[in-house]
Design brief:
This protein is an all-alpha fold and 217 residues long. 79% of the residues lie in helices and 0% in strands. The chain has one domain. Helix 2 packs across helix 9, helix 3 packs across helix 5 and helix 5 packs antiparallel against helix 9. The mean pLDDT is 88.
Length: 217
C-alpha cells in the first residue's frame, strides 16, 4: 500500500488499485488500528469521567469502562460496514457498477484520516486530562445535572473540545476527499456522482463524531 499516494493522490491510488484483485487485508489493518486506538482512548476518557463517582461504585464502573472500550472497538468495524453499505446503495441510483466487496475494500482505506487524527488527539487528550483535578461527588450531587455539567466542563476544558472539533472537521473533509475517489473507482461512477454518493454518509459520520465531542460543552 502506497500511503503517500493515498494521502496526496487518491485518484491515482484507487485507479491503480481497481486493476488489481480485491484484497481486504490492508483496509482491515487500517480499520483495526483505528478501532484499537479508539478503544484505548474511550477506555481512558471513561476512566477519567467515572472518577467523579463515590469510591463504593468504582468496582462497578470499572466494568463499564471495559464495556465502553469494547463498544468503541466494535464501532470502528460497524462504521466501516455501514458506510460501505450506504455508499453502495446510493451509487445504485447513479447506475453504479461493481461488487460490494470492492466497495467494502475501498471504503476501508478512507479511515486512514481518522487513524491519523487519533494519533494527534490521544496525546492532546492525555495532556489535558492527566493534569485536571477531578472532585468526587456524592450521590445527591450526582443527581443534580447542573453540578454534573459543571464538573464535566472542568474535566473537559473548552480548549480541548474546540481543538478536537477543529481536527474532526478537517478529518471529515479529508474523508470525503478519499471516499469520493474510492466510490468512483469501486462503482465506476463519474466524479460528480461519486462526490454526491460519498457526501451523505460522510456528513452523517462527521456529525456523529462532532456530537461525541460537543456533548461535553
Amino acid at each position: 500500500m502506497d500511503i503517500k499516494e493515498l494521502i496526496l493522490n487518491p485518484n491515482n491510488f484507487f485507479k491503480n488499485l481497481s486493476n488489481k484483485e480485491i484484497s481486504l487485508k490492508e483496509p482491515f489493518i487500517i480499520v483495526l488500528v483505528f478501532s484499537i486506538l479508539l478503544s484505548i482512548y474511550s477506555y481512558y476518557t471513561s476512566s477519567v469521567m467515572f472518577k467523579i463517582f463515590p469510591p463504593d461504585m468504582q468496582s462497578m464502573l470499572s466494568f463499564m469502562t471495559i464495556i465502553s472500550a469494547i463498544s468503541a472497538f466494535i464501532g470502528g468495524f460497524v462504521a466501516w460496514l455501514l458506510i460501505a453499505i450506504v455508499m453502495h446503495i446510493i451509487s445504485m441510483a447513479f447506475g453504479g457498477n461493481g461488487s460490494f466487496k470492492r466497495t467494502f475494500e475501498f471504503t476501508g482505506y478512507g479511515f486512514l484520516p481518522n487513524l491519523i487524527a487519533l494519533c494527534i488527539t490521544i496525546p492532546i487528550g492525555y495532556y489535558f486530562l492527566s493534569n485536571v483535578h477531578i472532585p468526587t461527588l456524592s450521590m445527591e450531587q450526582l443527581q443534580n445535572p447542573i453540578i454534573v455539567k459543571m464538573v464535566m466542563k472542568q474535566i473537559f476544558p473548552k480548549t480541548l473540545i474546540y481543538t478536537n472539533t477543529l481536527i474532526g472537521f478537517a478529518v471529515t473533509i479529508w474523508n470525503l476527499y478519499i471516499w469520493t475517489y474510492a466510490i468512483k473507482y469501486a462503482r465506476n461512477l463519474e466524479l460528480k456522482k461519486a462526490f454526491i454518493t460519498a457526501l451523505i454518509p460522510t456528513v452523517i459520520f462527521g456529525l456523529y463524531q462532532l456530537y461525541s465531542v460537543l456533548k461535553f460543552l
